[in-house]
Specification:
The chain contains 15 helices and 15 strands. 40% of the residues are buried. 31% of the residues lie in helices and 24% in strands. The strands form three sheets. A six-stranded antiparallel β-sheet has the order 2-1-4-5-6-7. A six-stranded mixed β-sheet has the order 8-12-13-3-14-15, with helices on both faces. A three-stranded antiparallel β-sheet has the order 9-10-11, covered by helices on one side. By secondary structure, the chain is α/β, with parallel strands linked by helices. It starts with a helix and ends with a helix.
């Protein structure tokens, strides 16, 4: 809001100089946010439903029996029960299973929006049921627990192979303001129930998942897409989504952030050329007496475009209920990690955010409670909280998360955050 007011004052000053009129615009405090003044507010925004926990078995490399009986015999094959907060940071080596976890959530969203058969091939890296089912696995099981204030519930889906190929619904169940459980179906019952009042908040949460990878090459070309809804995860409709951001309340934030990143971008615009939309950035170096120059998106660096795409995803209105960002540090200078964190942190007030990362610099921005360690043993992925000694070393400020990651892999602990510090001899180790 401050950035928007500064830009408005800048525009007024420019107009006054051009016309020779006196400059009288001044910055004024923003109006009070009534949602923050509870004593004087008769209405408050409704609390959205949020993910509490995801339990996933046999989806890609996310493996394990549905119960915990195998813990003592086959440690890597216990179920992946992942607790989720307003921000969740997944850290692990390449191919550990970070993307598979995010895709499991997105698969449920696609299945409820598009239908089960279409969801199997909705993404390029999905190749049908047998490609999604873990090798050697049996039934794909996904359970998502949610809450909204004091209201709690879940959605559970079990898929098995069908005779002749494909898959069928072995079991589907949900509990919110009402309950249902069905067996041996070909279609998803929740697809038709999710808009009914008894399930609406849970349904909106389940389908409101978007994963952003944003390859820079997808952001360079002009686009015909108007982006009237949620921005596409691959960025194919980025110009249209950016056009909506620049026309909304976050225009100033976006431009100031791009200036912090590059130090010479002072304006951004989206031009309509025929049926296409073209993104342009105005560069004006410090001390430059000229009017600056406009550059098309295809002339910008990978890092500039990727940050612009990420900021668009985080500032768009409306935000997805759950926004997952794959490795936001790719092609981005380490010095920009603090900038990205500011926008990730701001977005978590409006949506749940999931981050996958390898970056010690980005990891340093987060608290250890938010981190989930992703490890892979053979073809089995485990996702847990950090091991207690590493967790408390970071929590007590003895070592930063980034320092730990630079010198050793993060080690898996229990499913939830450790409740007690390690014993002195463990801490010394």
């Amino acid at each position: 809001e401050t950035a928007d007011r500064i830009l408005a004052a800048h525009d007024a000053l420019s107009a006054a100089i051009a016309t020779g009129q006196p400059f009288t615009t001044k910055l004024v405090p923003p109006p009070a946010d009534p949602s923050l003044t509870h004593a004087h507010s008769t209405t408050r925004p409704a609390m959205p439903a949020r993910l509490v926990r995801a339990t996933i078995s046999n989806y890609r490399s996310l493996s394990g029996p549905w119960n915990d009986t195998a813990r003592q015999k086959i440690e890597p094959l216990i179920p992946n029960i992942v607790t989720l907060g307003s921000i969740t940071v997944l850290v692990g080596q390449n191919s550990a299973g970070k993307s598979s976890f995010c895709d499991a959530l997105a698969f449920v969203a696609d299945a409820l929006r598009l239908g089960l058969e279409s969801a199997m091939t909705a993404k390029q890296n999905r190749g049908g049921f047998e490609s999604l089912r873990r090798k050697g696995g049996d039934t794909i099981r996904i359970r998502i627990d949610a809450e909204q204030g004091e209201l709690t519930g879940f959605y559970e889906l079990e898929l098995e192979g069908a005779p002749g190929g494909g898959c069928r619904v072995k079991r589907e169940a949900a509990s919110w303001r009402a309950k249902f459980e069905v067996h041996e179906q070909t279609d998803l019952k929740m697809s038709t129930l999710r808009e009914k009042p008894e399930y609406r908040e849970l349904g909106d949460l389940l389908v409101g998942v978007e994963i952003y990878s944003l390859p820079p090459d997808n952001l360079r070309p002009a686009s015909t897409a108007s982006s009237t809804g949620i921005m596409d995860g691959a960025g194919r409709d980025w110009p249209g989504a950016l056009e909506r951001v620049l026309a909304g309340p976050h225009r100033g934030q976006f431009i100031v952030a791009m200036n912090r990143l590059t130090e010479d971008i002072v304006e951004v615009r989206v031009l309509k050329v025929g049926t296409n939309r073209v993104v342009q950035f105005k560069h004006l170096a410090e001390g430059d007496s000229g009017a600056g120059r406009w550059a098309d998106a295809h002339q910008e660096s990978d890092g500039t475009l990727r940050v612009a795409g990420l900021l668009t995803a985080l500032l768009q209105e409306p935000l997805p209920a759950v926004i997952a960002i794959e490795e936001p540090e790719l092609a981005v200078h380490p010095g920009a990690m603090e900038l990205l964190f500011e926008f990730i942190h701001a977005a978590h007030r409006r949506a749940q955010v999931i981050i996958t990362t390898h970056s010690p610099d980005l990891l340093d921005q987060f608290e250890p409670e938010l981190v989930r360690v992703v490890t892979r043993h053979g073809d089995a992925t485990r996702i847990t909280a950090m091991e207690a000694d590493q967790f408390y070393a970071a929590k007590e400020g003895l070592r930063s998360l980034g320092h730990i990651l630079r010198h050793e892999p993060l080690r898996m602990g229990e499913a939830t955050v450790p409740e007690h510090p390690p014993k002195p001899e463990e801490a010394a180790r």
